[in-house]
Amino acid sequence: MTRHVELVQALRxxxxxxxxxxxxxxxxMAENAQHLTAEEILARVRAxxxxxxxxxxxxxxxxxxxxGLVNQTDLGRGRVEYELHRHPHHHHLICxxxxxxxxxxxxxxxxxxxxLARDFxxxxxxxxxxxxxxxxxxxxxASKHSKRHSH
Amino acid sequence: MTRHVELVQALRxxxxxxxxxxxxxxxxMAENAQHLTAEEILARVRAxxxxxxxxxxxxxxxxxxxxGLVNQTDLGRGRVEYELHRHPHHHHLICxxxxxxxxxxxxxxxxxxxxLARDFxxxxxxxxxxxxxxxxxxxxxASKHSKRHSH
DNA sequence: GTCTCTAATGCAACGAGTCGCAATAAGGAA
DNA sequence: TTCCTTATTGCGACTCGTTGCATTAGAGAC
Lengths: 151, 151
Hints:
The structure is a homodimer of 151-residue chains.
Chain A lengths: L1 H12 L6 H12 L4 E2 H11 L5 H13 L3 E5 L5 E5 L5 E6 L5 E5 L1 H14 L2 E2 L5 E5 L1 H10 L6
Parallel strand pairs in A: 4-7
Antiparallel strand pairs in A: 1-3, 2-3, 4-5
Helix pairs in contact in A: 1-2, 2-3
The structure holds a DNA duplex (30 and 30 nucleotides).
């Protein structure tokens, strides 16, 4: 509830209008701490505001992302996932083989952010990173299988 | 030309068939060192093999990516861009405001890769990273503009 | 060269997300 | 409270990329 008020204020402060469409997206985001797809958000929003158009949802999410209130990440599942901006940041290691996802701490990326700022004056959005690769289990699995493929 | 032969061999070695569709995608990739969108690849491929289906191109690109011969990156322009895997790797800093793109050296990400390997046994694909954020110029521009938005 | 197996293609339908434009409504001004 | 400006919405059409399935064609075996 407090979070919801905060979000509404941030919207108003940045000079944007508060529409029922935006407000309901905001409410849904504030109520769900975990990643949501646009489709899930649309479904939940329609529970309280039934005839809401999908473009409005996408546009609301784009605006919230621009304002830094929401993170928008492609976690490799064929659709983008949205989440309220959390403190401290966190990131994900995603295995391309088994899809397993490990959450990692922001500290691991902080050094990189500092280096980019120092060397290039570039302020990187390292809010919610998805790093793809191969997990420990799948690496050992892969080395066994590679023998078969030799034909 | 040598690069093209290498690619064909890698395909065969991994147990996949060499079709004219795949070969023409390979040829186009080998001839163009820079980023290409799927649409550009399709256009160039059709110059030599006119009735090629777009699914075949997408599937060929997906296979080449899986084999590590091609990098596939979303550089924030609304479509994915493809490029032959280059050594040494390189990455991009992309400004969300002005779209300016700076190429950076792999060395900056190498430490991160090592940390992830050490701490999690995770082998990250840090081949061709797109890091979004705000460039130096746009940061100073933004601080000026923020006064206007205070209403 | 011919046969056979099955990987790969072509096609058409689909899904996520975007865009242009006319209609609507938020919210400041009077 | 009413008016006015213009940001925002709804809608339908569109784009990029994916998928299921019947058909085609690589390439190893004979």
